[in-house]
Amino acid sequence: RTHTEEKLFNCKECDKSFSCNIYLKKHMKTHPGEKLFTCKECDKSFSTTSILNIYMRTHTGEKPFPCKECDKSFCRNIYLKVHMRTHTGERPFLCKECDKRFFRKASLQKHMRTHSGEKSFSNKQI
């Protein structure tokens, strides 16, 4: 893993963040406890009110993190930070095979398939 790896999946119980949702889900099992705070819209439960409040944005559409460069807004600060790369031109994810750079880790991973010959799952073969 590199220090520039994009970590969009943040644990709401502690300060850890993860590059893949599956790693976050595995990590969440280390936080046992009752989930006493329930969403009134869909009955999903959370262990803290702050996590519930962040989750509620999926229902309300609230996007409290506006971009100062354009008219876009985001529901989470990390999404705004990633978006800002479109304005700054920052491309922190480097292909070690050809030195091409990418805004997002997922784009680099997709690109790496061109070097390995791996087929994308979206390409259906008959």
From TrEMBL:
Pfam families per record: zf-C2H2, zf-C2H2_4, zf-C2H2_6
Annotated keywords: DNA-binding, Metal-binding, Repeat, Zinc, Zinc-finger
InterPro entries xrefs: Znf_C2H2_sf, Znf_C2H2_type
Listed name of the protein: C2H2-type domain-containing protein
Alphabetical list of SUPFAM superfamilies matching this protein: beta-beta-alpha zinc fingers
A GO term, aspect molecular function: zinc ion binding
Domain C2H2-type per the UniProt entry, residue ranges: 9-36, 37-64, 65-92, 93-120
Protein species of origin: Oryzias sinensis
SMART domains: ZnF_C2H2 (SM00355)
Family: Belongs to the krueppel C2H2-type zinc-finger protein family.
